[in-house]
Amino acid sequence: MEAFYLRYQMNFIRPVGTSRGQMAYKETWFLTLNNGAQTGIGECGMFRGLSIDDRPDYEEKLQWVCDHIHWGEAALYEALHDFPSIQFGLEMAFRSLRSTHPALLFPSEFTEGKAAIPINGLVWMGDTSFMHRQLLDKIQAEYRCVKMKIGALDFQQELGLLSFLRSQFNAEKLEIRVDANGAFAPDEALSKLKQLAVYELHSIEQPIAPKQWEFMRTLCQESPIPIALDEELIGVSGRAAKKELLETLRPQYIILKPTLVGGFRGSLEWIELAESLGIGWWITSALESNIGLNAIAQWTYTLQSSRPQGLGTGALYANNFDCPLEVVGDQLYYRPEKYWGLYDILPETN
After folding, report:
1. FRET partner for 325 with CA separation of 20 to 30 A, picked from 103, 118, 134, 294?
2. Catalytic residue list contains 257
């Protein structure tokens, strides 16, 4: 078996904003396996400034994987403890290699085009007028769940946007999630959560920065809005450490990005532990290309969750790959008759 990797720069159609700043592009890496006539591809979508494997030796580690591909999936996965995005790409590539088509990873009614995945509409940070236009777009598309990034504008302006949304639809008609990306200071977080609660929000993601367990535990206990942990999970590996975090903080939800938490295997361990403690969950992409998004979507469907998932990010890029994924309203479909544009990475794929 042979393996090689390729760096690829994904360019946003419009720079996207979070509380960590704006992004004009995102790097990703593709791991390709060749075994005779069989070819597999996986995406290692390390996220600058967020992933624990954002380190100078990242490509060196990718080359190490290629050089040691004869070890096999299980041994390599265990050796990549500190590189969760490569773990994910490795899992994806080996599953792709074993499949009848490199992009058909989890055959199901979803990949047959017979079923869809409910998704949330995502409103990115920007000035008030830009965010307002996005909200109008989501209303027009009849999304039943909208997720809004907060923490970058003046807080009163953000409350104004939420007030607008609630003036259009009550909580029975529209589920609103907000994501602070850790933007609130610990001493002001509870006060802001109480102000946000007026708008009957479904949940708030990561109100304060991670690794402040004493403050976060108190917020999870006292917040009038259910708290979903996201960045808090990054860098936590091993069943015992995951269990300690969940038992200590007791959040209402956790949000799983396979690229950031060790792929399918790492995500499933979080899900099993969360469910044992009565903690809800959903899956979110981490701005992967359509190749990685496709793998996450196919896997997510197999989990059979009725909650809206965070999988609608494929249309953000100017140079993404053509793929069968299609968003219709607030549903993500897979159209098997559509062309798979993997030719830049896998020249023989059609």
Report:
1. 134
2. yes
